[in-house]
Amino acid sequence: MKTDDLISLIAADARTEPPPAPVLALALPLTLAASMAGLVLSLGLRPDLAVALADPWVVAKGLLPLALGGVGLVLALRLARPVAAPGALPLLVAALGVLAALSLAAALVVTPAAQWARHALSPSAVVCVLTIPAMSALPLAAMLAALRRGAPVRPSRTGAVAGLAAGGLATALYSLQCTEDNPIFFVLWYGVAMALVMAAGGLAGRRLLRW
Amino acid sequence: MRDTTGADWAELLRAANRGDAAAYARFLRAITPMLRGLVRARGGGLGPETGEDIVQEVLLSIHLKRHTWREDEPLRPWLYAIARYKVVDAFRARGRRIDLPIEDYAETLVAPAVADPTEQGDMQRVIAALDERSAVIVRAIGIEGASFAETGARLGMSEGAVRVALHRGLKRLAALRKRMVE
After folding, report:
1. CA proximity to A99, closest of A72, A64, A54
2. pLDDT for B68-121, tens place per residue?
3. Which of B21, B73, B116 sits opposite A11 (nearest CB)?
4. Which of A21, A66, B73, B118 pairs with A132 at a CA distance of 20 to 30 A?
């Protein structure tokens, strides 16, 4: 086909697709709600939730992943446009990571060394590392489906950031069930779980976010 | 040859986004020499036919992703970002790794207008792979210059249905192009 004819063809097409954000505004809350429902029906929320929230570690346990997920969400949407200007967002992610590391350090200081292994190797680690990715699956699918409507020029990286968003938000929800309140446990195992989701997002992005 | 300013192109694309098909066609014709220049500058050795195939691929991508341009942003960087991504991808799929620096657009020379070399190219092949109705629509509107009404009458479809089918057909063309080259 001659290029000039292709141009005539293209110019006749006035229809456009919706960009990622409106799609996500619908799909992400729905998928997170579904994951939350799944959590409540299977493992249930922690019975002492109201009391536990008086403990600053418990609040941090939910807020840190929530913040990471939120920043990931904004960053992913930016990366979905070809002239992506990430701005200070990656620095923000790094800063939150540093906060998490500092929490871990503080916990190591205040917790007797004899108890470190008990926290780090708690059997709930298995539940955590399995459940968070499971809860992230639908939200990650929603993110990828929405981001496909954009034009990300770094598909793999964008997928990983989508994983950060989905993983962070799912972890925040999961923390409402989890009774391990020592950062030695949750910085380590939530970190591992979120890293798994980010890796999955990066791999999926490589295939699904190309255009 | 100096190419026209990004500001003119932005005005054309803005008009196009408001539904001005004539402005959209002018926009696409205006940017094509720049795209050709980009591809030729990097793709020496792949031949003019393949180069034109890649130019067509870039044009189609710009069309399908035009909603990713914010009208208050400069146009040239957005245009170039899309072209850069597709050109690198197109060359990689054909076994050539090329490098396109991000600032290159400022220095890109416009390729002189030559007779369009591609008659039987990649696009022709994927049109042949389309379903019958979409192929008829593509040929009628693209090559024969038929209107939506005429095309609809020919196929027993409403004008609106033809518009929807055209859009879907273009998306399908892009997907088939990607798959075909990979």
Report:
1. A64
2. 999 988 999 999 999 989 988 888 887 776 666 655 554 455 565 555 555 557
3. B21
4. A21
In this prediction the ipTM stands at 0.87
Instruction: Give the integer Cα–Cα distance in Å for B79 and B66.
Output: 9
Question: What is the spatial distance between Cα A55 and Cα A49, in angstroms, rounded to a whole number?
Answer: 10
Q: How many degrees, rounded to 5, is the angle at CA B82 between CA B54 and CA A151?
A: 115
Using an 8 Å Cβ cutoff, are A158 and A152 in contact?
yes
Q: Is the pLDDT of residue A50 over 80?
A: yes
Q: What is the pLDDT of residues B24-47, one digit of tens each?
A: 999 999 999 989 888 887 765 667
d(CA A15, CA A85): 27
Q: B127 near B139, Cβ under 8 Å?
A: yes
3-state SS track over B17-28: HCCCHHHHHHHH
Enumerate the residues of chain B whose CB falls inside 8 A of the CB of residue A10. Answer: 24, 28, 59-60, 63, 170
Decide if A13 and B63 are in contact by the 8 Å CB cutoff. Answer: yes
Write the DSSP symbol of residue B113: P
| Interchain proximity B82–A7, CB inside 8 Å | no
User: Would you give the distance in Å from CA A79 to the centre of its chain?
Assistant: 15
